[in-house]
Structures are given as structure tokens and as C-alpha cells.
Design a protein that fits this description.
By secondary structure, the chain is mainly alpha-helical. The protein is built from 17 helices and no strands. It has a single domain (10-379), classed as Growth Hormone, Chain: A, CATH 1.20.1250. The chain has helices spanning 2-8, 15-47, 51-61, 63-66, 71-74, 80-98, 104-132, 137-165, 170-188, 212-238, 244-272, 274-294, 298-311, 316-325, 331-342, 344-359, 363-379.
């Protein structure tokens, strides 16, 4: 770790920004993980939504990610480091009121607000990391954020378990989490992270031919991730009969492993470059999706689920790849564009995959294999010079 701290050079110009972004990263993790942990029980047991209504809510939840491009135009009004703060505040307010909007329409409203805050804060966070940390530092910062989020996920799970044991109403738990997020935002608002002059960012949409590979890999990454999010746990429960305790155990074990693995992946990017890291991820994904589709051993499929999660931090290499090929003034609009492209599939994959599942549960995972093979083809075209700074 000593070497990592030396590389980050936190005593110089970017120390305040590092602290600022880490606080907000942890706050978003508290809010989103808390909301996600409670959502299904609240929506089903207290609101009484149907599967169709849940599908509608989940589709609407992805709309802000698809519209992340609008961040570019919000930057005409707000400074980027303040926009990320306001986005997290938006998230906190939506969580605080979520438990009191106990209807189908109420769930749509609170979920849309939460998703807007989460997606916009994530877009700005990525952009600020690439602007304030050099090409060797940015993978380490992204990796540390991943580790802290994993640790937060474990902690918030324990807290909610205790609250549930004490039979605290879900609406009160939501309120406590929301107020905690809002309080942390107020604290973070006192920090001035702007300690050096950065390259002025374009305030218009950027779509350049030289970034074509970044766009394609982002799209394929988003499509692959949607198959995992929508169908991985579903197959564990439906076909392999995992109980709530087993799924919870997987979540906890996954976050413990991610806490240690994420910094390692950051160092691997600096040592081996983005192409090799992503080739490793997508090669493994071919076999993982094949396992989901064709293996019947519940324990092996559970291990594949863990591997799937462990490999996900490799996706930070897509953003650090842009850091090396992109023009400095294109970082903010390109992060917004990349996030939008990444979420195009989120509108299509859940519905398409669900329809294909009705024909044969293996088909969505075979689609995942095909997407991983396409990813391997395009990722192999990445070429970057070793970072000197």
C-alpha cells in the first residue's frame, strides 16, 4: 500500500479532490446499497406490485443512465464538482421519502429520482478522476473506490440486518439512510476540492471517430453487464434453488473478495495495460456464461457468480483507456457519452432476454457468450502507450 500512496501523491494538488470524491463515493454506496437491499421486500410485501409492474419500474430506473448525456448541458449551469454533490443530494432525498411513497406510482417516482442522482453522480465522479489524477494514478483511484464500496456494502448489509431483527419499519430505515446521505453531503459541501487549474472541458456533445473503439467496448460492456444483473441471481434461485441466506452469503463473500481484488486490478492495469486486463476479463466471461447455460451443479454455478462479480472491476480499464487516447478537454462530455452508450442495452436486454428465457433459459447466456466474443475481438484492437504520468 505504501507504493500506492506514493503513486497517488496525496500531499500535492489532488489531495482535496481525492478526499472529496472518496467521501461521495462512500455516500452513494451507502444510499444505493441500502435502497437495493430493501427494495424487493418493500415493493412486494408492502406495496404489493406484480412482476409486470416491477419490470416497468426497472426499465424506468435505467432511463437516467441512458440520458446521462444531459450532464453535458447541466455543466453549462453548474461546476462539475458541485454537480456531483447535488446529484448525491438528490439521491439522499429520494431514499428518505421512498418508504412513504408506498404505491406503484410512488415507487416509480422515488426510483426515477434515485436513479438520476446515482447515474449523474457516477458520470461526474469518473470524469473528475480522469481530470485530476494522471494516467498512472487514475486506475489506483478507481480501484480504491471499488474497494471502499465493497466494504460499505458489507457494513450496510449488517446494519439493515440489525434493523430488521429489531423490526424497525422499512419506511423508517429508508428515512435513516436518506438522512445519513443528506448529512454527509452537507459535510462534503464544506470541502473545496479545486486546488489547481484543469483543462477547460467542452460543454457540447462530443462524438469523434477516433473514439470509436471506446464507444463500442462501452456498449458491449453494458450489454454483458445487463445479462448478469437481470439473470445471474435469477438462475441461482429458480433453477438451483438458492435460499435467501445462500444468496446473502454470496453477496457478503463477493464484497469481501472485491475489497481485496479491486486494488490489485488497478495495479494490473498499470503493469500490463488495459488491453490485457480486458482480454482476461472477457475470456473468462465466455466460460462463465457457458457455465450458467450448461452446468447443473449449484455450487459450481455459485462459484461462477463470484468470479463474475470479481471480474467486474476490470471494466475500469475502459475509462482509463480513454484517459490515454482522449483529448483532455473531451473527458467530461466523453464520460457522459460513454455512460449513455453503456446504458443503451439496459433498455433492450431485460425485455429481450426475458422473452428469450421463456423459450429456453440457456439463450440469454448464449447471447452473453456471443457478446463476450465480440468484446474480445474489439478489445484486442486497443493500443496504448505505457503511462509516464
Amino acid at each position: 500500500m505504501a507504493r500506492t500512496k506514493e503513486t497517488l501523491d496525496l500531499t500535492s494538488k489532488n489531495r482535496a479532490m481525492y478526499r472529496y470524491l472518496m467521501i461521495l463515493t462512500c455516500v452513494v454506496a451507502v444510499g444505493f446499497q441500502g435502497w437495493r437491499t430493501l427494495y424487493n421486500n418493500f415493493a412486494i410485501d408492502e406495496v404489493g406490485i406484480t412482476a409486470l409492474q416491477n419490470g416497468i419500474i426497472q426499465s424506468i430506473r435505467e432511463i437516467p443512465g441512458f440520458l446521462s448525456l444531459l450532464v453535458i448541458y447541466l455543466l453549462l449551469i453548474f461546476k462539475e464538482h458541485r454537480l456531483v454533490l447535488y446529484s448525491v443530494l438528490f439521491l439522499g432525498i429520494s431514499i428518505a421519502i421512498a418508504g412513504y411513497l408506498d404505491s406503484f406510482v410512488g415507487l416509480i417516482f422515488s426510483t426515477f429520482l434515485l436513479s438520476t442522482g446515482m447515474h449523474y453522480s457516477t458520470t461526474c465522479n469518473k470524469s473528475l478522476v480522469l481530470q485530476y489524477f494522471d494516467k498512472r494514478q487514475s486506475p489506483i483511484v478507481f480501484a480504491r473506490q471499488g474497494s471502499y464500496k465493497a466494504l460499505i456494502n458489507i457494513g450496510i448489509g449488517i446494519v439493515i440486518f440489525i434493523f430488521s431483527t429489531l423490526e424497525v419499519p422499512t419506511s423508517i430505515i429508508y428515512l435513516i439512510i436518506g438522512i445519513s446521505v443528506i448529512s454527509a453531503v452537507i459535510y462534503a459541501s464544506r470541502i473545496d476540492p479545486i486546488t489547481n487549474i484543469q483543462t477547460k472541458q467542452r460543454k457540447t456533445m462530443v462524438l469523434k471517430r477516433k473514439y470509436w473503439l471506446y464507444y463500442i467496448v462501452n456498449f458491449l460492456s453494458g450489454a454483458r453487464r445487463q445479462i448478469f444483473v437481470v439473470f445471474a441471481v435469477f438462475i441461482l434461485v429458480q433453477r438451483h434453488h438458492y435460499t435467501i441466506m445462500m444468496v446473502t452469503g454470496l453477496f457478503i463473500l463477493n464484497n469481501i473478495i472485491t475489497f481485496f481484488i479491486s486494488p490489485l486490478i488497478g495495479r494490473m492495469i498499470n503493469r500490463f495495460d488495459e488491453r490485457r486486463v480486458l482480454l482476461t476479463e472477457y475470456t473468462a466471461m465466455v466460460f462463465i456464461f457457458a457455465g450458467y447455460a450448461f452446468l447443473d451443479n449449484a455450487w459450481i454455478v455459485g462459484v461462477l457468480y463470484l468470479l463474475d462479480n470479481i471480474l467486474y472491476p476490470c471494466s475500469m480499464a475502459i475509462n482509463t483507456y480513454f484517459h490515454k487516447i482522449g483529448d483532455p478537454e473531451d473527458i467530461a462530455p466523453s464520460m457522459a457519452m460513454g455512460f449513455t452508450i453503456n446504458h443503451i442495452s439496459a433498455v433492450v436486454i431485460p425485455v429481450l432476454g426475458g422473452a428469450l428465457w421463456m423459450l429456453d433459459y440457456q439463450i440469454p447466456f448464449i447471447l452473453g457468450i456471443i457478446l463476450s466474443l465480440f468484446s474480445l475481438f474489439f478489445v484486442n484492437k486497443m493500443r496504448t502507450a505505457p503511462p509516464t504520468k
